[in-house]
Prior knowledge:
Chain A is α+β, with helices and mostly antiparallel strands.
Amino acid sequence: RIMRPDDANIAGNVHGGTILKMIEEAGAIISTRHCNSQAGEPCVAALARVERTDFLSPMCIGEVANVSAEITYTSRHSVEVQVNVMSENILTGAKKVTNKATLWYVPLSLKNVNKVLEVPPIQYARKEQEDEGKKRYEEQKLDRLETKQRNGDVILPVINPEPHTVGYSQSSLIHLVGPSDCTLLGFVHGGVTMKLMDEVAGIVAARHCKTNIVTASVDAINFHEKIKKGCVITVSGRMTFTSNKSMEIEVFVDADPFVDEPRERYRAVSAFFTYVSLSKEGKPLPVPQLLTETEDEKRRFEEGKGRYLQTKAKRQAQMQQSAQQ
Amino acid sequence: RIMRPDDANIAGNVHGGTILKMIEEAGAIISTRHCNSQAGEPCVAALARVERTDFLSPMCIGEVANVSAEITYTSRHSVEVQVNVMSENILTGAKKVTNKATLWYVPLSLKNVNKVLEVPPIQYARKEQEDEGKKRYEEQKLDRLETKQRNGDVILPVINPEPHTVGYSQSSLIHLVGPSDCTLLGFVHGGVTMKLMDEVAGIVAARHCKTNIVTASVDAINFHEKIKKGCVITVSGRMTFTSNKSMEIEVFVDADPFVDEPRERYRAVSAFFTYVSLSKEGKPLPVPQLLTETEDEKRRFEEGKGRYLQTKAKRQAQMQQSAQQ
Amino acid sequence: RIMRPDDANIAGNVHGGTILKMIEEAGAIISTRHCNSQAGEPCVAALARVERTDFLSPMCIGEVANVSAEITYTSRHSVEVQVNVMSENILTGAKKVTNKATLWYVPLSLKNVNKVLEVPPIQYARKEQEDEGKKRYEEQKLDRLETKQRNGDVILPVINPEPHTVGYSQSSLIHLVGPSDCTLLGFVHGGVTMKLMDEVAGIVAARHCKTNIVTASVDAINFHEKIKKGCVITVSGRMTFTSNKSMEIEVFVDADPFVDEPRERYRAVSAFFTYVSLSKEGKPLPVPQLLTETEDEKRRFEEGKGRYLQTKAKRQAQMQQSAQQ
């Protein structure tokens, strides 16, 4: 589809959240189709997890986004989908890869939303593909468990914060979940949630550095719990780490089933977004250092630094590998 | 893309207007891409005309719309695009053809919006394809001229109208043209206009027969004049004809460039929409006969009857033809 | 236009904010058109104030909203517009008056956004109409000044609040102002702001009473300052008063021009919304009493009570008057 002014920031760069939403819609279609391809109970595929995603090059207003999706692995109860996004300038014909994302879906029965159904197995061209898929499956399963455990944190408000502190840029929004946010089962599309998360993370980043900012990457996102139509969701973001030219923002999504259900507010999703600041010419700008005040903030800064260095090391290893080939 | 609750009426049938909008977006992308495929002035393809389009089967919420487009003819200054829409129920895997539409686009220069550029010619597999395309091109050109001439009519309000008269169901809406309604050139997408036209036609039809209604077909739509960002457009509809099971509604679009231009309000588009009334089981229902009062209304009713009988005769001829094959 | 699922809450009642947005769009169109009706500098009408508005009967999904607008007074630099909203059930044909609203607009030059232009005078059928209009003009001018003065208040967060306290239900959302929120001048439409205010007020009300709630009325809203594209706006609401069957919520809008402007966050709008709680059959329900804790909360409760009793007295006076006629 063509990118519109509403999909982009003032500088004309399409929001990472818009792209994440398109990716998730493509993933939901292909995996729902696959899970219903054999006779049996009808089901809808629900997003369980998105692997770490890099935004390789910015997309602009007027460009056409081409989204393609492929199923790359199936376990007994889950589907791995690989989605690629290309941006195409239809005036010049130039095409660029914008994103490569990996998503995990789980089929839920249309009759009983709490029942996870079985996934029809796919055929692999080579035995190694199945083995590698199984390895990815085991890894993400472990990571999902871990995130669930450290997920109790809350963002407390700060009165009169100093510039460049954590409290200064932290932000939250509330959103009432309407019908067009939802799947056939009446639960929020993962893509809608990710778009709101990117919106909050972008406001945190812009408040911190007061320049034009764009999403550079999103760490793995786990969808721990479904969110129902009619809930109010609170999406909160706080900065955890800054390098010379990037900012890491942690985002939480809490759901509040405040009408006609006796349930308490619960944590539904959490993730780390990385943003960079761009000059008017599109060059990366230096970012003001985050001022940490409390022990918790200092600890989270160090953890963020760890993730940053790990990603940097991985990228260098990949570059050396491709240089050697 | 997946059809959402907002794309549909209360009974869950997707609005014809939503489908027309998707068709036009696909047509605009493929023809803009084609017209920029040779070095030269960059341009944007603007919709000039949509040929008569039948809605073959209704699409429902939760189904996925697959839209494919192909260039079938090029004249010196225009492109003919054939767009097909399939609806796919991803739970059952069932696919149906929903629409086949033919659209004509004209390339406008990005630098000078009043300059029509030349279209790179396409290659035809067989000589007959080119000849048939040329015939279609000549026919539509003639029809465009004719429509332009009879386009001066206005819809006047009626005080205390009787049920089933023309005045009883006639309706109009106004819409302020915003940035996300527009192309790169700052003119309204043809698809946005068609969606609003379908909305008004649907209200006229529902007011007349007070049941669930769906778009059955749209007669050829000619886009006589561009509409600029910041205009107020008035979309008005009145019923012109009823058969036993269908209603024909004429829709006008008038643009009012009320800021920063000295221009008068002008007629930008007009078209005929045909609606049918459906029971809760999706079966066609009889439609109350339209009561015509003035001479003009009686004349328009007869003209509508002419179009109705002509379409019916064509369809029967086609059915006999395919029965004989 | 037809009311869609997204325009309404779970019970199918259209959000007051959707109606306020349509009212403002109609007002902006008619007053912009009027202010450009004489040769001179082109301009756009900006919303300065909305008078107190009662929601007389709820509108539902599938109904058609008919909005009509008329200019009722012009001063040298402002226009008074009266907007009426009727809801029409197109299946039964039943029509009801939903809203009557009065709005004040000011023409701003398209060339220089800080220049207020002169308004072409309208003709009055009777001299009394002009005198009454002038009286309304003077009254609202006074009220605008007063609100501006008491407008410094902020909503502070509360940790672990008790149910039914002010802190328990208070809510805020942030919104990044995008292109389709804005007029030709690049400033937020008043209607967009009102829709967000109603959204926050509705969440406050629902959090307090945990039932289906609808907007009953909005007190006069003054638009003190324009909000520019690219700003982040924070819309915050807190409950100030409860009667047996209604809740009053105060809503603030603060704008944060955080990119490329050296300006501080400022208060742009504030207003009081009144909500009622409805049973599944649409009958008003009793509302839990608001628990006030601080001196400020007690003072605001008393002020809210004053407004409530004043409105009640006015309504009774009107009913007696119409009974005597």
